[in-house]
Design a protein that fits this description.
Layout: E1 2-11, E2 14-23, E3 26-30, E4 39-42, E5 47-50, E6 52-57, H1 70-79, E7 82-87, H2 98-111, E8 115-118, H3 134-139, E9 144-145, H4 155-166, E10 172-175, H5 180-183, E11 188-189, H6 192-197, E12 201-202, H7 204-221, E13 224-227, H8 233-244, E14 249-253, H9 255-259, H10 281-293, E15 298-299, H11 308-311, H12 328-336, H13 339-354, E16 371-380, E17 399-408, E18 411-415
The structure holds zinc ion.
Zinc ion (ZN) binds next to loops.
């Protein structure tokens, strides 16, 4: 039996000071030790809660394993306190069949240190034309469907997919909401800065138009729709209005959209290039407020590893995306210093959206031992990562709050040495 003693435990009634006891893959007691103890960690002053669940990670495996693979990606996840990671299907080949889903699960079962949850593509080869066999993939346990990286723009195709998804319990149609005509050729938010620097822009209208169309079809079909990496305030207004009308819609935001905006882009740091782009300060503030208010359900990393040589080639030519698994919790802690926000947006709600049953539960006797210990006072400056890539905007920036320990199914898969 492993004990985590003197922590602040995020339980069903909120945070309480107590001890947590783990036997096998289960939390067996909160409070006094129910039997002989083998191992104890003193976690005084630290938060103990359910392991984080990432709705949006690019593990690059199969196809681009020089950037990341199931081992390095899940080690990075464990270091960031994640016990389950939804793997985006824009691999090579794209995850668009039951065989490919099962192959990923089998390899993850052998190699990965936390749970890998394959998402499946919406369309064959992610080409936006022919819907995948949603029913067969759902039967194989897939819940999140997305062509992430590209928005499915064909009205008939997305309508057919949403009609099918509406009949499948727990199925979620997730979209990378960027209308391709409006966003074509752009590298940053279209505005004063892009004009001044002469960099092609992507207007917020690209996201707004995509989400507006998707919400109309979600409303008509009854499908559950998920907005990936929301970037602008006007999209939030659409979502709020749709929710009021009873549309089943959930929203994620990335850590970098909460922390950075066009005000940080003067230097054209390629580690601040991602799609959708960073927006204006007012958008960033609106995203933080919407997260605190609960309009945004989850923080998802959009962990997108690239090697240095793919990033340090000038802003326009730089690969898109940044890594995020190892720094996400610190960023969310910085938003509100609030255990409910931390475990709600990084664990309980994303676990529900992705349908991963053994994750995201408040800690109590009988809950699965997928746990994280988070030290809210620890200051640290990321210098290197467990990820195979290091394209992080947080390199060399001080953060407050750090994951100290991660337990996956009762085993310690990451422990920070102070
Ligand atoms: Zn995306």
């Amino acid at each position: 039996m492993i004990g985590l003693v003197n922590g602040v435990v995020w339980g069903p009634g909120g945070p309480v000071r107590s001890d947590v006891w783990v036997e096998g893959d289960t939390v067996v007691a909160v409070g006094a030790a129910p039997g002989p103890v083998e191992e104890v960690r003193d976690v005084t002053g630290m938060l103990v809660g359910p392991g984080f669940v990432d709705l949006h990670a690019h593990l690059r495996d199969p196809g681009q394993t020089w950037k990341e693979d199931l081992v390095s990606g899940t080690r990075a996840a464990a270091a960031g306190g994640f016990t389950a990671v939804v793997a985006m299907p824009n691999t090579t080949p794209a995850t668009d069949t039951v065989d490919l889903v099962e192959d990923m699960r089998r390899r993850a079962g052998l190699e990965a240190v936390v749970l890998v949850v394959p998402a499946a593509a919406l369309t064959v080869r992610r080409e936006g034309k022919e819907p995948v066999d949603l029913e067969a993939l759902h039967g194989a346990g897939v819940r999140v469907f997305t062509d992430d990286g590209d928005w499915v723009s064909d009205d008939a195709v997305i309508e057919e997919l949403m009609m099918a998804a509406a009949r499948l319990p727990g199925a979620v149609i997730a979209q990378h909401a960027e209308e391709p005509v409006l966003s074509a050729g752009g590298h940053m938010h279209e505005g004063e800065l892009s004009r001044r620097l002469g960099v092609a822009g992507i207007p917020p209208a690209a996201e707004h138009e995509a989400v507006a169309r998707d919400l109309l079809i979600a409303a008509a079909t009854g499908a559950t729709y998920h907005v990936q990496h929301v970037s602008s305030a006007s999209t939030l207004d659409l979502v709020a209005e749709a929710r009021e009308r009873g549309v089943r819609v959930t929203v994620e935001v990335t850590p970098h959209h909460l922390d950075f905006d066009t005000g940080d882009l003067e230097s054209l740091d390629p580690n601040l290039k991602m799609y959708p782009p960073l927006r204006e300060p007012g958008d960033r503030i609106a995203l933080r407020e919407a997260l605190v208010a609960g309009l945004i359900d989850a923080v998802a990393t959009d962990h997108a590893p690239h090697l240095a040589g793919e990033k340090e080639v000038g802003f326009a030519d730089s690969a898109r995306g940044v890594i995020g698994l190892e720094t996400a919790a610190s960023v969310v802690w910085g938003v509100g210093q609030d255990p409910d926000l931390l475990f709600g947006s990084l664990s309980a709600r994303p676990a529900r959206i992705a349908g991963v049953g053994r994750h995201g539960h408040p800690v109590e006797p009988g809950s699965p031992a997928n746990l994280v210990v988070f030290d809210p006072d620890r200051r640290w400056t990321p210098q290197q990562f467990h990820s195979r890539s290091a394209n992080s905007p947080y390199l060399g920036r001080e953060l407050t709050g750090r994951v100290a320990l991660t337990l996956y199914e009762g085993s310690i898969v990451h422990e920070e040495t102070p």
